[in-house]
Amino acid sequence: MTQIFVKPVMELRLLNIHFTYSDEEDLSTSHPSRYLEHMIRHEGSSSVFAYLKELGLVDYLSAKASAQCPGTALFYIETRLTEKGMQQYREVIRIIFQYITMLKESPPLAWISDEMSHLAEVEFKFGQKLPPSQTLSGLAQLMQKACIPREHSLSPSLIHKFDPENIECGLSHLRPDNFRFFVVDQQFPGDWNATEKWYETESKLENFSKISCKNFEPQFGRRSQRGPLKFTC
Questions:
Q1: Strands, E, within the chain: which ranges?
Q2: I want to staple 17 with a disulfide (CB 3.0 to 4.6 A). Which of 69, 75, 77, 221 is the partner?
Q3: In whole angstroms, what is the distance from residue 188 CA to residue 178 CA?
Q4: Is residue 103 domain-resident?
Q5: Secondary structure (DSSP) of 51-92
Q6: Is residue 197 part of a domain?
Q7: pLDDT for 12-43, tens place per residue?
């Protein structure tokens, strides 16, 4: 496993965790990775972000799956660290992994997927319209993907079904033997041992041992009590 330290020009304190991930191009009707993105990056009182922020370790956290090429993808968890968080970056990683472990111990929840589906529908129906040229360009790209059903070609962002099996498959990739991380800071660790050829960015690359996880048991957020969304023409 690899840890990479990078010295930026600007004053930044970042911790970015990268996992190799499965290609979901043929799962365009369920988007299972979006369930994981939501569960990891949401900011409710029971979230991993709220816990890390309460400890004074981070002030921003995001999660995103990204296709790289056919058959290959990456899953990113990115955080912006406080000064305290930079000194305890391994604790941040440990807590994130413990939260992922908690997700693995509980089955995916259909009501969360349903709410995500409703929100995606709201965004699709009432979102800002794109310029015609951008819409045409996006459609041209989608036409290259034979896995997207024709009836969904105009609404590829919608979630049409709950897919717990592939959500759990995605979770199986988020494990301590399948990632590397980047720490970005001007001062830490300070003993840079490499310089990039073109931009002369200082960095340091080294292996690290497995990070142990202790108990971390936040509770899932409560289900919204609002009624289902309905639209009429």
A1: 2-6, 14-21, 58-69, 72-81, 179-184, 194-195, 202-207
A2: 77
A3: 24
A4: yes
A5: HHHHTTSEEEEEEEEEEEETTEEEEEEEEEE-HHHHHTHHHH
A6: yes
A7: 999 999 999 998 888 888 899 999 999 999 99
CA distances from residue 110 to 17, 30, 134, 141, 183 in whole angstroms, order as listed:
27, 12, 34, 31, 35
The token duo for 219 is: 């509770």
Cα–Cα distances in Å, from 60 out to 2, 132, 134?
23, 34, 30
Q: Any idea of the CA torsion for 88, 78, 1, 13, to the nearest 10 degrees?
A: -40
The angle that helices 32-41 and 110-126 make with each other, rounded to 10 degrees, is 100
Q: Which residue has the tokens 């890390």?
A: 52
Q: Which CATH number fits the domain that encloses residue 68? A: 3.30.830.10
Residue 189: cis peptide before it, omega within 30 degrees of 0: yes
Name the pTM for this structure: 0.82
Domain holding 100, by residue range, is 2-125+157-207
